[in-house]
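User: What would this chain look like folded?
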Amino acid sequence: MKHISICISAYEMGGKGAQYLKRSFDMMCIQTFKDFDIVVSDQSKNTAIEDVCREYGDRLDIHYFKEDPRATPSDNTNNALKRATGKLIKILFLDDYLYHSESLQHIVDNFDLAKDAWLITACIHTKDGANYFREFHPRFNGEKILEKNTVSAPSVVTIKNSPSIPLFDTNLIWWQDLDFYRALFNLYGNPKILGSVDIAIRVHENQMGNSSPTKRRETEYAYVLKKHKIRHKHALLLLYKAKRMKSFIKSCIVSIIGYTK
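Assistant: Here's the prediction, encoded as structure tokens.
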């Protein structure tokens, strides 16, 4: 049994999935902490992801599994989580990667298997994989996590492996991360928060959430509020719609007059 299983859900991602996976594997090859394996669940229609896994097979301990291309993104992630055998599960989305050579070492050194159930780490953003901006240091706002994402993407999360860990809700795309964090909170309470920047979050047009239309986002939010029995859910939904409308109006003004405060 490895200490950490790194779980990656893979797909074509606008033709760049294999490129992103290579970058992620390159960073794993230089980790100072070596006691890990990689679980890749691939729902691509082509063999590009599988070819990359085969290319790195002599340098990394990779377990490749094929998922139905018609499955939901959450199905794909869950397939990887279910296959993980390490003491810890490190979620790492396909477009994100370990930021530096000691990323895994920082996580292992700070994760107390006797006391901790889940951990979140800080991250930094990139568009090209070379230049970085906006460090993000997470905080966890308990039951209010569904109102605002104060954690960042699931790639910052590490969980103690257990048969009882929650899975991603297959009904969700846009709200899958906050729903997952709330499920972890319901089961384990607050996470340990690690201040070091250990994950690079890639910002690009092919991100899964960017393909979610406004109506779906609103429908998913209503579903999540009901699922977790949130009080004042109708007021929160109205507030969310108002914020979305304000953002839309501002973007329209900027596009017309080319100015933003």
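The CA atoms of residues 57 and 75 lie 25 Å apart. If you want, I can go into more detail on any region.
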